[in-house]
Amino acid sequence: RKVVCHTPSISRRAISPMKQRHIYVLLMRMPDAVSKALSLWMRFHYTHVSIGLDEDLEHFYSFGYSGFRIESVERFNNSDKGPFPCALYQIPVSEDTYDQVKQQLMTFVDRKEHLRFHLFGIALALFRIRHKFEGRYFCSQFVSEVLHECEVMPQRKHSSLFMPRDFSKQKELRLVFQGMLTSLPAIAITLQETAEILSHLSL
After folding, report:
1. What does the DSSP assignment read for the chain?
2. What is the pTM of this model?
3. Average pLDDT, whole number, for the chain?
């Protein structure tokens, strides 16, 4: 079992540690048949993507078969469908950018009842067909659209074509952990302690 934990360094974006915030992108391997088929097709281990704002790494936002959802790491870890392999990426951003991403996510929360999972969109993406259906998203499309619209990362590929493996190639995303989801609470503590050390060093 491969477990990798990287201690984050100060961002290249010249953001003061006192004002620096972080956005997290979580890649996971889901146990369902569709995810297993996608993994074989894409030749990539992870099949699900979500975005988080909390330093405790407990809640993430994404799309699943039920539509838009707020995912709980604790609930995943208590599920009998696990364990879940995962990779956690960290993106250092300014306070203003963090607030923009948060506001964007809140608009999805407010529209939750009108949002649907877009299974057909995945098929279109696999055949590299750009598309846009109002209120319909698949997980990687949703996360990439939020990051693009908030200018967290440049749009190197249209959001409707973004797949989980594409996040691993984005230079703005720093891999900080790779292993099992059950280890994420401990990783959250490590990241918080590291942030405190960097903050004190900057004084």
Report:
1. ---EE------TT---TTT-EEEEEEEE---SHHHHHHHHHHT-S--EEEEE--TT--EEEEEETTEEEEEEHHHHHTSTT---EEEEEEEEE-HHHHHHHHHHHHHHHHTGGG-EE-HHHHHHHHTT-----TTEE-HHHHHHHHHHHTTSS--SS-GGG--HHHHTT-TT-EEEEEEEGGGHHHHHHHHHHHHHHHHHHT-
2. 0.87
3. 88
